[in-house]
Every structure is written in C-alpha cells, then in structure tokens.
Amino acid sequence: MSSSAHTDNTSALVNQLITQIKQHGPISVAAYMSAVADAYYARGRVFGKDGDFVTAPEISQVFGELVGLWCITAWQALGQPRNFQLVECGPGRGTLMADALRTVWDVAPVFARSASLHFIERSEALREEQRRTLAAYDIDWHKDLSTVPDGPVIIIANEFLDALPISQFVRTAAGWCERMVTHGANGLEFEVAPLPNATIDETFDDAPNGSILEQSEAVEKVVSDIAALCAERPGVALLIDYGHMITDVGDTLQAIKNHAFHPVLETPGEADLTAHVDFAAVAQTARSIGASVHGPVEQGLWLNRLGAGVRETQLSDGKPEADVAVIRSSIQRLVDPEAMGTLFKVIALGPAGCAPLSGFSAGTD
Ligand SMILES: C[S@@+](CC[C@H](N)C(=O)[O-])C[C@H]1O[C@@H](n2cnc3c(N)ncnc32)[C@H](O)[C@@H]1O
After folding, report:
1. Could you give the CA distance from residue 171 to residue 150 in angstroms, rounded to a whole number?
2. pTM reported for the whole predicted model
3. What pLDDT, on the 0 to 100 scale, is given for residue 45?
4. Residues 222-272 pLDDT 10s
5. I want to staple 295 with a disulfide (CB 3.0 to 4.6 A). Which of 150, 215, 288, 347 is the partner?
6. pLDDT digits over 75-98, tens only?
C-alpha cells in the first residue's frame, strides 16, 4: 500500500471517529483501540524491519520450535488424543506455527497427524500472509473461538492479548472516572468523564488522584472462552505476552510506529496500539471458569527450562562464527532480562487437576 493510501485511510478513520464523537459524545479508550486495531491490522504489512515492530517468532526460530515441543508435552498431558484441534490466536505472519509444525513433524509425527489446524484472525490481509507461509498445511480460519470444532484443544497465543482493547479509569476526587477520547482544538484528545462509573477493588482506595487503573473486558472474554475450552474439551492453552504479574496502577497504553514510540492519539491506524497484560487478572478469570493455572513465569526462565541453550548449541554446530553470533544474539534477545526475558510472561491453562506442564514448576514459580 502506498503512503498516500495510508494517509487517506488515516484521514477516513479520524473523520469517522470525529463524526462519532460529535454525534454521540466522547468514546472510551476501549472503543478507540477497537476502531484503530481493525484499521491497523487490515494493512497487513506491520511486522519486521520494514514494518512497525518485531515479535519473538520473527527474532529467532527457536521460539516457535520450543512452543512446538511444549505442545507435544501438553498433548501428552491430555492423554495423546488422536484427533485434536491445534489453535493459534492472532498468528501474525504465521512464523510461529511454521517453526512449531516443522519441529513436531520431526519429533512427534503422531502428534502432527492428530492435529487439525485453526487460526483465529480478523485481518484479511494477515490471513493471506498466513496462507502463503503455511501453504503446505490445511488450515481453517475463524473470527473467534466459538466456531472451533468439537474435541480436545491445544491453544497458543503470542502477543495476542496485548492487542485487545482496554478501558482506563482515572482516580479523581469524585472516584474512579473513565478516561475518554474526545475531539478538541488540537484534534483527538483525552478527557476524564465527570462521573465515576467503575467498581475498582478497595486495594486501590488510597491511590493518589491522577492514578490510572486498566481493565479489559475483551481480555476477560477471550480468557474466559479459552479457559472454558480447557476445562470442558479438555484442553491446554499457552499465552505469552508482555505484562505484569500483579495488578497495579499505571498507564501502559502505547503506540509503536517504525519501531519507536508514537503518540497514542496521533495518526490512528498507522501505529500498533497495545497495553500490558494483567496476568493476575488472566489467572483469576481462568480459575473462576474452572481451569487450572500454571505460572505465570518470565519468558526467559520458561525458554531456558524448555532448552533454549541446548537448541542454541545444536543450531550453532559447524556454523561460521558470524552465524553463531547471530544465533546467540537473537536467542539472548528473547531470554535476557534486559531485553524480552522478564518483561514477557508465560502462563498456561489446563483442565482442573492437570499435572504440572513443561516449563512451569509444580508449586508457585
Ligand atoms: C501483535 S500481532 C502478534 C502476531 C504473532 N502472534 C507473532 O507473535 O508474531 C497480533 C495478532 O493478533 C491479531 N488480532 C488482533 N486483534 C484480534 C482480534 N480481536 N481477533 C482476532 N485476531 C486479532 C492480529 O491481526 C495479529 O495477527
């Protein structure tokens, strides 16, 4: 798509948002994120050097390979069902699944033959890219999890939950009031609703005025759906994302364009809008539905437990020094606490009473 087409689309989205605000009043941050996400992912080419951001599977093949190996152990924990649904939510370019499938066909062909593949993806442009990446496989695409056929499931999702809309509530003298998006003299602007409209846990009663607390109905809905499948089919799910282990105040809404932070309300639809995932809320939601919860653990720890170091040695064997350095630095980026190793967390869900899953300890991590 040309840059003038981008600009036209951005103007169209801004005009649509302004018309909506003029007719019906300020919109919530969640409504803004939802409108922007549809426009943004419809563009397709958002990943990699020429796009806006890079995800773990695009950094190193080891990420998808280890997720593939984890899926085999999860399948064993489910009793090795001969027919099951292997589902990925938000597969991006399809790189993670391609690396995972190459590995499982090598290591556990019975697992691979038993799997039917399903992608949950809204963007037509990305569905096309996924179709190209995984041309050798039969895949069914879905808008959401409700149409995934019966049977045991294994669900994976990397950097999917962070793309879902969040609501923000601001502590004021009157109580917790929702942060809204309106239209002012300088274009789209944030404002705080005049009346409190949120029920916030009393833990945060002492938060100073101006504090922001985030909640996500969309994440709660998706995690509830995933947890219900894990509890009932049965199934296991692996959710990886950046976020925090403990619910706390803070503004984590961010936009990334050309690999740099970008103002959240500027040129909507041209930057990737995300928020940190509240893993405490994810765990609580999953438990309330009857699923078992494993972790969360930091991504670096989880990848190392699964054998990132061993795989680095295998991949490096016999390679020229320059290639070895690239292999090492890309894996380091995934596991290093200064890079993605601690910011990103991994959580797994399973049926009630599920045995400990690979990479997660039996007690608390
Ligand atoms: C940040 S990308 C992550 C891509 C991939 N998992 C990776 O690690 O490279 C988010 C993905 O989720 C998809 N997505 C975002 N919101 C969605 C929604 N509500 N329903 C289905 N897919 C969605 C996007 O189109 C994209 O494929």
Report:
1. 45
2. 0.96
3. 81
4. 999 999 999 999 999 999 999 999 999 999 999 999 999 999 999 999 999
5. 347
6. 999 999 999 999 999 999 999 999
Helix (H, G, I), strand (E, B) or coil at 95: helix
Ligand 1 atom 5: the closest Cα is on which residue?
92
Specify the amino acid at residue 80: Q
Distance, CA 90 to ligand 1 centroid (Å)?
Answer: 3
123 lines ligand 1 (CB under 6 A): yes
Three-state DSSP at 205 gives coil
Pick out the chain residues at pLDDT < 50.
1-2
Is it true that the peptide bond before 234 is cis, omega within 30 degrees of 0? yes
Distance 92 CA to ligand 1 centre (A): 5
What's the gap in Å between 161 CA and the centre of ligand 1?
A: 8
Q: Which CATH architecture has domain 42-165+215-350?
A: 3-Layer(aba) Sandwich (3.40)
Question: What letter represents residue 57's amino acid?
Answer: P
Nearest to 168 by CA among 194, 186, 192, 187: 192
